Amino acid sequence: MLTVCDFCSELILENEIYFCVNIATYSKKSGQNTLVLPEKTDKEEKNVVLFNLKKATEEELNNSVHKHKKFDLCKTCYQKFFEDPFFNY
Questions:
Q1: Cβ-contact 83, 32 below 8 angstroms
Q2: Burial class (CB in 10 A: 0-12, 13-18, 19+), 35
Q3: Strand pairing category for 3-4 and 11-12
Q4: Cα dihedral 33→70→62→60 (10° resolution)
Q5: What DSSP element (H or E) covers 83?
Q6: pLDDT reported for residue 2
Q7: Quick check: 75 and 19 in contact, CB under 8 A?
Q8: Distance between CA 79 and CA 89 in Å, rounded?
Q9: What is the pLDDT of residue 46?
Q10: Spatial contact of 22 and 70, defined as CB atoms under 8 Å apart
Q11: What pLDDT, on the 0 to 100 scale, is given for residue 63?
Q12: Which of 78, 87, 65, 63 is nearest to 18 (CA)?
């Protein structure tokens, strides 16, 4: 199986050690674990929130709360990743 580093595009040879980095992001509102409609909002505002939820596709809803990305990294890029995860070099 041919593997290429996702950051530098270097070919990773067969039987060579490389690193898989998995990144998962989740949306979260401070202090809340689930969607809670504020008690003191008027009915119209609640209806707007519910309408927007109903018209969104399943993919849009999933992407708005959770995303996952996997990267295959060569040894050099892996070391750089842990020195500076956002690659500001």
A1: no
A2: exposed
A3: antiparallel
A4: 140
A5: helix 75-83
A6: 84
A7: yes
A8: 13
A9: 72
A10: yes
A11: 64
A12: 78
pLDDT digit string, tens, across residues 5-26: 999 999 999 999 999 999 888 7
Please give the distance of CA 3 from its chain centroid, rounded to a whole number.
22
> For residue range 34-81, what is the model confidence (pLDDT) as tens digits?
556 556 567 777 777 677 777 777 777 666 667 789 999 999 999 999
Tokens linked to 75:
């040894």
**Rounded CA gap, 52 and 33, in Å?**
20
Q: Alpha-carbon distance 83 to 66, whole Å?
A: 26
CA distances from 56 to 2, 9, 34, 51, 64 (A): 39, 36, 17, 9, 10
Report the candidate in 25, 21, 22 with the shortest Cα–Cα distance to residue 80. Answer: 21
Over 60: is that where the pLDDT of 32 sits? no
For 87: left if phi > 0, alpha if psi spans -120 to 50, otherwise beta; the answer is left
